[in-house]
């Protein structure tokens, strides 16, 4: 086996050092900020920007300064071994899962389209609602069974306001308080809004599952405040409503499909076993 001479060894060492330098330079030579051995490139920064955000010469220094501050704390946390703690590892793993779920959902929802014909059909079916404003009272509880029990009590003749004062956990309309008049298109939940505007005065809704909890709505009053409304004035809202609904249906269908081909177990009792 041939042995390299001292000169050849030196040449090889120099070559390897130069090669490593070139690789490092190619990867980090265009960096825009640095903290120790951590480099921020333009490509990496662009990947972190929210959609629609553009950097300007005026705001870039403050963005880079925030990255530096965050990186300094990150490196200190690593130095203290916080990333090695088991509880932190679990949370980091869950954060990664949540991030991937959000990315997947966003990509799926980009496929959802609403046709002009669908939007116009919705407008024609609900046009009268856009001419009105409503006043409501409601009961909001966290427990679904309690909500259904309260609805049965209301149907049997119990006073809505008295039940609201006793049971409702509503932080907005406390104790059965009445709302101001609400126009169509002002609520964040289109399904809830449709349910409200389909009611007649003194009519009570079914139990409605919402982000605030399980709701029972009583329509206090409905008044017409417009003579007419043009499709173009509400088309954006209608598109959002239909896209929201189609998105929910698409995701529910997708989850059902994934469940059908995957073994899934839910064992709440196992949580309490010692």
Question: How would you describe the overall organization of this protein?
Answer:
With about 270 residues, the chain is an alpha+beta fold. Mean pLDDT is about 90; it is low at about 15-25. Among the domains are: about 1-25; about 30-85, no CATH class; about 130-230, Chitinase A, domain 3. The strands form 2 sheets. The chain has a 4-stranded antiparallel β-sheet. It has a two-stranded antiparallel sheet with strand order 1-2. It contains 10 helices and 6 strands, in the order αββααααβααβαββαα. α5 (about 115-125) packs across α9 (about 230-260). The longest helix has 30 residues, at about 230-260. It has helices at about 5-30, 40-50, 60-80, 85-110, 115-125, 145-155, 160-165, 190-195, 230-260, 270; strands at about 35, 40, 130-140, 180-185, 210, 215-225. The radius of gyration is 30 Å and the shape is extended. This is peptidylprolyl isomerase. InterPro entries: PPIase_dom_sf, PPIase_PpiC, PrsA_foldase. One of its GO terms (molecular function) is peptidyl-prolyl cis-trans isomerase activity. It is an enzyme of class 5 (isomerase). Keywords: Isomerase, Rotamase, Signal.
Task: Describe the structure concisely for a colleague.
Among the domains are: 1-25; 31-83, no CATH class; 132-228, Chitinase A, domain 3 (Roll). β1 and β2 (38-40) form a beta hairpin. The protein is an alpha+beta fold and 274 residues long.
């Amino acid at each position: 086996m041939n042995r390299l001479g001292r000169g050849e060894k030196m040449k090889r060492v120099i070559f390897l050092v130069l090669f490593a330098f070139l690789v490092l330079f190619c990867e980090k030579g265009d960096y825009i900020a640095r903290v120790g051995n951590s480099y921020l490139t333009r490509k990496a920064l662009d990947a972190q920007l929210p959609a629609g955000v553009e950097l300007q010469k005026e705001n870039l220094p403050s963005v880079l300064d925030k990255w530096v501050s965050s990186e300094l704390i990150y490196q200190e946390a690593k130095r203290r071994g916080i990333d090695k703690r088991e509880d932190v590892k679990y949370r980091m793993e869950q954060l990664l899962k949540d991030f991937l779920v959000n990315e997947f959902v966003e990509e799926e929802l980009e496929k959802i389209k609403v046709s002009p014909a669908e939007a116009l059909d919705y407008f024609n079916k609900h046009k009268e609602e856009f001419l009105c404003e409503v006043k409501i009272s409601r009961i909001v509880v966290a427990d679904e069974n309690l909500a259904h029990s309260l609805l049965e009590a209301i149907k049997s003749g119990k006073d809505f306001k008295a039940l609201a004062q006793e049971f409702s956990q509503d932080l907005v309309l406390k104790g059965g308080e009445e709302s101001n008049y609400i126009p169509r298109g002002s609520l964040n939940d289109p399904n809830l809004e449709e349910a409200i505007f389909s009611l007649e005065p003194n009519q009570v809704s079914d139990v409605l599952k919402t982000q605030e909890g399980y709701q029972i709505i009583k329509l206090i009053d409905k008044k017409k405040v417009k003579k007419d409304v043009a499709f173009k004035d509400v088309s954006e809202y209608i598109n959002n409503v239909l896209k929201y609904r189609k998105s929910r249906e698409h995701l529910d269908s997708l989850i059902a499909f994934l469940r059908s081909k995957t073994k899934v177990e839910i064992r709440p009792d196992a949580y309490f076993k010692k």
